[in-house]
Amino acid sequence: MHRQEKKAYAWVAMQTYSGRKDIHIVTDVLIEVVEQFQKYNIASADLNKARLKLESLADETDDKIVENQLNRLRPKIRKALALIAEKDDSLFIFIDDLHVIKQELQPVLLNHLYAICRDNRTFLKISGIEQFIKEKPYNAQEIRLDYNLTMPEKSKNHIKSILDAHAIYCALPDISYLCGKGVLDRLVWVAAGVPRDALYIFSQAIARSTMKDEKKVSISSINAAASEMAEVKLRDMQQDVFGDSDEVKHILEKIRLFCVDEKPVFLVEIKNENTLFSKIKQLIALRLLHVIHEGITPRKAGRRFMALMLDYSVNLFQKEPKALTSHELRKLPIFPLS
After folding, report:
1. Residues 6 or more apart in contact with residue 281 via CB below 8 angstroms
2. Of 243, 294, 249, whose CA–CA distance to 270 is shortest?
3. Fewer beta carbons within 10 Å, N or C terminal of the chain?
C-alpha cells in the first residue's frame, strides 16, 4: 500500500538476524532503516552521516561504547526522519518477526526504534508471535490477525471470503465451484481457523486433486495436505523458538501421547507462572495446539481451564467445525502440568 501510494517507509525482515544475541543487532537494524530512508533526498545527507557512524561501530566489542554511541546518534536520526515526515505527512517503519531475536534484546531494540520515532509522525508497525515477545509496550495497539476455533463460524466465513476473492479474480463465481461436499468445513477445521494455514492446505489439496483427475477438491485431498503440514510447522519451530526447540518438541510429544490415550481435545489449567504452561502457550503460537475455549471452570470454583486441540497433522478430527457445549467441555480429560 505504501509503495503504491509512494509513501515513505522502511521494512526490516528480522529473520535475517535469527539466532543473534549481540547488541549489534540494534546497529544493523538502524542501518537498514537509515539506508531505506536515504532515497528521500530531503534528508539524505544527514542520514548518510548517521549510516557511516553506525557502520563504524561494527568492530566495536565493548557493548557500553556501542550503547553510548547509539544514544548519541538517536537525536540526529530522529531529526532527519522528521524532515521526511513533514513532507510525506507520516512515515512507517515495519519490523517483521520481532520474536526471532533473543527476548532480552527485544526491548533494547524497541527502545532505540521508539526514540527515533516519537513525536515526529513516524510510526512503528511490529509483527511477531505474541508468546515469544518479551513484553508489549504500554502504548502499543495490539492487532490480532486470526480467528480460531473458539469462533468456528466466523473463522469459516473469514476463510471463505479470502478464497472467494481468489476465485473471483480467476473468473470463477466463488470458491464453492472448486469444492466437493463438506470441503470448506473440513478445511476450516484442519486449519484451526488460521487463514494462512487454510490457504497453504487448500493449494496443496488442489494439486493433489488435479493429479488424481478429480473435478473438484476432495476431503481426502484436504486431509492429506493437512497431514503433510506437520513438517512445515516443525521447521517453523526451529526458526521461531530461540534455543528452546528441543524442549518444546519434547512437550509436544508428551501431549501427543496423552491424546493417543485420551482424546485429541483436552483441558489444561491456566497457570501463567507455570513453566510447562508457558511452553504450551508457545505450542499454541506455533499452531501445533489450538484453542477451542479460552476459559472454563469444570469442577472446583477458582480454577480455570483452557480447552485445547492437538493439530490435525498428528490426529484426525470430526468433519464439521462446531463449538463444544459447556457440558462437553467439562467432561474433557485434563492434561497435568506437574
Report:
1. 131
2. 294
3. C
3-state secondary structure at position 242: coil
List the pLDDT tens digit at each of the 338 positions of the chain. Answer: 555 556 788 999 998 998 788 899 999 999 999 999 988 777 778 888 999 999 999 888 899 999 999 999 999 999 999 888 887 778 899 999 898 888 888 999 999 999 999 888 899 999 887 777 766 655 667 776 655 677 888 888 999 999 999 999 999 999 999 998 889 988 988 888 888 889 999 999 999 999 999 999 998 899 888 888 877 777 776 666 655 677 888 898 899 899 888 888 899 999 988 989 988 988 888 888 888 888 888 777 778 999 998 888 766 555 454 567 788 888 889 999 97
Lookup result for grid cell 513533514: 86
**Total count of residues recorded for the chain:** 338
Amino acid in position 250: H
